[in-house]
Structure to design on (471 residues):
């Protein structure tokens, strides 16, 4: 089962007797009073300031050990690529390690390792991120190195060609040769028809194979500028100590105009799509469904309610879906419901289940739909609400001891259009979500009988018989 809460699942990367539902319009007075009386406490106590070139800086003090994590988040990802150039943002991420003015090709990670640290990078639909973790005395050096590759990459022609082959091989390994990766890619493409989220972040193979040095240089110059980036530093430092360092390194880089995002819209679905994949290398059948739902940027209230819904439906072995389908009905060996609210455009909620032997996909799907109808018709209980709140609050306490987790969650929220306050007081915001709000988002976004207004994509991964060897 999944780590609890969409918000807390990111935090956990760094560290993831059930009551019958009954109609509830509002919490009883005593429970409501208890929730309202809880003090609004910040989770991370982050500090923030901006450089003269428009770069936002966030500092998360943590003085337990003399170590810092630096993350630079760029507001650009796979969804910002021109049509026909999928995979370009990920390709540029790879080339950021191939040399800048003062750091020769291949030396960035070598230097970080020599400091006793580690580094990595990642690309999403809405962002690209780079991070390092070192002891505090090495922070000035890694800031200089990161600023150097923001200021100007070299893009050696031979490195561009060789790294494109690396990216293609990565796609072969993670997608072409993995039925789960390929299936997930196809499901997203069906959910986001005519929208850039329908393209895989790693790119379609034929389009990546056609990317050129001119493509990557143009993309880099268009998006890689300090006023399109967020610097997050977590660890043994304060904003007062970091500000002169940030001004000396990133603050000297000139800002450039960045284009506004104008993405296409998903057209209305006039048919309810289903995707079936049968392959001999699929080891177990899997039932999946994807919904487009509001992101945090689009609606904070809906995002909070959907996060609580996720926690109630799939926050542990005693929560609704697992108890109903795995324990009571014995239809599934595992079942997950996940909601990701951190997106510039629509968020995604998905359900995935593995049927026990002998249970058909149709039977499993009908049982899942029955649980969704029960949620819509009967709502959730006060006990379920309070247990969800407790899990969120407890995990936020553990998050304070993490170094990379807070930098990850604050960066992800800010780079997708959220506010610092959203992360700082998330447990307090969760406390204010009512049973009626949870029931309302279930009715509006997850109703299996209202697919004309809220269509979804259902998919089945099925083992296929292996062809018999020739005699």
């Amino acid at each position: 089962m999944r780590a609890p809460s969409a918000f807390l699942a990111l935090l956990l990367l760094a560290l993831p007797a059930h009551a019958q539902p009954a109609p509830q319009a509002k919490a009883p007075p005593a429970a409501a009073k208890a929730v309202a009386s809880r003090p609004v406490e910040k989770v991370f106590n982050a500090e923030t300031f901006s450089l003269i070139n428009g770069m936002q800086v966030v500092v998360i003090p943590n003085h337990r050990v003399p170590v810092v994590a630096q993350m630079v988040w760029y507001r650009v990802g796979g969804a910002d690529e021109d049509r026909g150039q999928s995979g370009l943002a990920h390709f540029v991420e790879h080339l950021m390690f191939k040399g800048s003015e003062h750091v020769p090709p291949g030396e960035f990670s070598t230097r970080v390792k020599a400091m006793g640290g580690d580094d990595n990078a990642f690309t999403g639909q809405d962002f690209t991120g780079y991070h390092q973790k070192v002891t505090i005395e090495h922070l000035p050096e890694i800031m200089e190195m990161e600023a150097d590759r923001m200021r100007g990459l070299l893009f050696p022609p031979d490195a561009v060609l060789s790294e494109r082959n690396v990216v293609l091989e990565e796609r072969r390994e993670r997608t072409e040769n993995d039925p789960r990766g390929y299936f997930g890619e196809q499901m997203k493409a069906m959910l986001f028809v005519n929208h850039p989220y329908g393209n895989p972040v790693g790119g379609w193979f034929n389009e990546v194979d056609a990317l050129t040095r001119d493509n990557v240089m143009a993309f880099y110059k268009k998006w890689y500028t300090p006023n399109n980036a967020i610097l997050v530093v977590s660890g043994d430092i304060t904003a007062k100590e970091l500000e002169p360092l940030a001004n000396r390194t990133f603050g000297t880089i000139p800002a450039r105009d960045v284009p506004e995002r104008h993405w296409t819209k998903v057209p209305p679905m006039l048919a309810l799509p289903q995707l079936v994949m049968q392959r001999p290398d699929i080891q177990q059948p899997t039932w999946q469904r994807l919904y487009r739902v509001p992101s945090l940027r689009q609606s904070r209230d809906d995002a909070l309610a959907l996060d609580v819904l996720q926690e109630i439906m799939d926050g542990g072995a005693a929560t609704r879906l697992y108890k109903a389908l795995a324990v009571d009905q014995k239809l599934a060996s595992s079942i997950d419901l996940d909601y990701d609210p951190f997106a510039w455009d629509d968020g995604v909620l998905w359900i995935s289940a593995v049927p026990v032997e002998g249970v058909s996909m149709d039977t499993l799907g009908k049982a899942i739909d029955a649980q969704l109808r029960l949620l819509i018709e009967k709502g959730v209980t006060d006990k379920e609400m309070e247990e969800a709140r407790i899990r969120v609050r407890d995990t936020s306490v553990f998050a304070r001891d993490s170094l990379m987790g807070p930098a990850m969650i604050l960066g992800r929220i800010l780079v997708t259009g959220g506010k610092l306050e959203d992360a700082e007081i998330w447990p307090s915001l969760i406390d204010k979500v009512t049973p009626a709000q949870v029931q309302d988002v279930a009715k509006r976004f997850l109703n299996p009988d209202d697919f004309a207004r809220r269509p979804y994509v259902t998919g089945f991964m099925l083992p296929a018989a292996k062809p018999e060897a020739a005699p």
Remarks:
- DSSP finds 18 helices and eleven strands in the chain.
- Confidence is low (pLDDT under 50) at residues 11-36.
- The CA atoms of residues 38 and 428 lie 8 Å apart.
